[in-house]
Amino acid sequence: MADGQADGQADGQADGQADGRDASGVAVRWDEDGSQYLAALDGTDVGRLVVERHGDRAVFAHTLVDDGVEGRGVGSALVEQALADARGRGWTVDPRCPFVAAWLRRHPEVDPG
């Protein structure tokens, strides 16, 4: 996986599993056990966003995307859907990951929550 390199709309569910899909076909889900969001293409996990939870605060710490899918919008879809899901859960997001922070600068209309 490419470290911190990555290029939707979330349908977060309160039951602990986010399962959104955007126009690029990237499906994002929350993995409670791994404390991460996972991104899949055609049913195969190809990216993750590691989250450090501190109560209602979620530090978006690290984004990884498989080299073979770079440039296909996986990272952007992962960040966008994870942010929407985190807001839906009432979490305050702290974007420590450089990719997440850069994505937010490019999308000032998105409230990180």
Automatic annotation (TrEMBL):
Residues 1-24 are annotated as: Disordered. Residues 1-17 have a biased composition (Low complexity). One of its GO terms (molecular function) is acyltransferase activity, transferring groups other than amino-acyl groups. It holds the Pfam family Acetyltransf_CG. Residues 1-113, 29-113 form the N-acetyltransferase domain. PANTHER family: BSR4717 PROTEIN, PROTEIN NATD1. This is Uncharacterized protein. It comes from Cellulomonas marina.
